[in-house]
Write a structure and sequence with these properties.
The protein is an all-alpha fold. Helices cover 71% and strands 0% of the residues. The chain has 18 helices and no strands.
Length: 459
């Protein structure tokens, strides 16, 4: 609808598929050539961003903010595209055109991968998702599940007693490192604490009781406060987004576009406040403004450092994605992004041991597979997310719903740091998801029940 006038463009599905496939192969061929290094295609990418924005708004209205096209495209646009534009405004110099080309190629590949995975009639006009999705599948081991939640809470309190509360420390950054150093087992229970509220929410929706829903919200509020006290901005945001995505998916309540914009502004303010306090211990306007500039413009800067200082002759061929899995082993606290500073910064040996480089998801793809890797990794990531969403829509069990919301939110936040930096976290969260799935699906009998034969005879 433009200016109050409704419009509709009907394209036969075959023609739509053929056109999208042709454009995809064309951009893939461009990514394999040297054109991106030599030709400024910025205005072409702006056209792609504009058309995709129409699709994002349409999907938001027909599906919801948990749609993969909405989440991933918005995260990419905000962190990399808008970030590169703000870079020019803040630094007062032009962002090199080949960097903009790489960002545009990555976005196009992600977007078409998401579209290919969906039921494709025409990108702008989609079939509406079912109005009401009913859940009647109860948790079979509620008592054991609540006992496990209690263990996670006690382990988290033990973690705070042993390592301190980072947000109450004088040096928040160092306190965050101290919290995880030597406390690997307790940190695993902290991750578990962020998954159980999803199960409690799903069970409350299935039972349809007001009391259960209130209890679920109270548990979610408590977990949010606990995560915030650890100083983890992205972890706090990820948990709230996962919880709200599952809640709104089943309740099918309207989430207006204006409210979405307002929530985005509040999120930016939240990141600025927590970041300013975590970095310098103050929350005044100059510190918050500086932190907001860092949040929005740093990723494009880091991406430019990766492109300019990392040679394709030293590609990792996929091994960089699994470097952070070493953090799951005892004694390993730093990840691959900390080691990456030696590949990017000439004076890395003079930097703090905990300092690292967040290359962004496309910078990470470049280091592993070169410029063509930016296109193909983002395309298959979008395709996988879209197929996961379709699987969840077709049969919204707890396992499928929780897996999807955790995956889409975590990969959305991974746009800034890269997938490899999130892989260890994924493994721990999916471990807890498997535990909760077991509690949900299979009844565990801790004792044998004695049949009441008297009642049977009386009947």
């Amino acid at each position: 609808m433009i200016g109050g006038v409704k419009f509709r463009i009907d394209i036969p599905p075959v023609i739509g598929w053929a056109l999208l496939a042709f454009l995809t192969l064309l951009v893939a061929a461009i990514s394999h050539s040297g054109i991106l290094w030599t030709v400024n295609l910025r205005y072409l990418w702006f056209a792609v961003y504009g058309v995709s924005l129409l699709v994002i708004i349409d999907r938001f209205k027909k599906g919801g903010f948990y749609e993969p096209v909405v989440v991933m495209s918005s995260a990419y646009l905000l962190i990399l595209v808008i970030g590169s534009i703000l870079f020019e405004l803040i630094k007062e110099k032009e962002y090199r055109f080949y960097l903009s080309n790489f960002i545009g190629v990555g976005y196009f590949a992600l977007f078409v991968g998401l579209i290919f995975a969906q039921d494709f009639r025409y990108t702008i006009h989609l079939e509406r998702i079912k109005k009401n999705i009913y859940v009647t599948h109860f948790m079979k081991n509620r008592g054991l599940a609540y006992f496990t939640i209690s263990v996670c809470i006690l382990a988290t309190f033990a973690l705070f007693i042993k390592g301190g509360v980072p947000m109450l420390a004088a040096d928040v950054q160092q306190a965050r490192l101290d919290l995880v150093s030597g406390n690997g087992i307790l940190n695993i229970f902290l991750y578990g604490l962020t998954v159980f509220p999803l199960a409690v929410l799903y069970d409350a929706i299935a039972r349809g009781t007001r009391r259960g829903m209130i209890g679920s919200h109270l548990l979610a509020g408590f977990v949010t406060f606990v995560i915030l006290m650890t100083g983890g901005r992205s972890r706090t945001f990820a948990f709230l987004a996962e919880y709200l995505a599952m809640y709104f998916f089943f309740h099918r309540r309207r989430f207006s576009f204006k409210l979405m914009v307002a929530c985005t502004v509040l999120l930016a303010l939240f990141l600025a406040v927590v970041g300013a306090y975590r970095r310098g211990g103050s929350m005044d306007v100059p510190a918050m403004t500086k932190e907001l500039g860092i949040v929005l413009a740093t990723r494009p800067v880091m991406f430019s450092l990766v492109i300019d200082n990392f040679s394709e002759s030293r590609m990792f061929y996929g091994s960089r994605y699994f470097g952070d899995l070493l953090k799951l082993l005892p004694g390993h606290q730093t990840g691959a992004n900390v080691d990456l500073k030696y590949e990017v910064w000439p004076n890395a040996d003079k930097m703090p041991d905990s300092a690292g480089v967040s290359p962004s998801v496309i910078g990470e793809a470049y280091m592993n597979f070169g410029v063509p890797g930016i296109f193909w990794f983002m395309f298959f990531e979008g395709l996988f997310l879209g197929l996961t969403y379709r699987m969840m829509i077709n049969k919204p069990t707890f396992l499928r719903c929780a897996f999807y919301v955790m995956l889409i939110i975590d990969l959305g936040t991974a746009v800034s740091a890269g997938v490899g930096a999130r892989l260890a976290k994924f493994m721990i969260l999916w471990f807890w998801l498997a535990v909760i799935h077991f509690l949900y699906e299979w009844r565990v009998k801790l004792w044998e029940e004695t049949p009441n034969y008297g009642s049977s005879l009386a009947r």
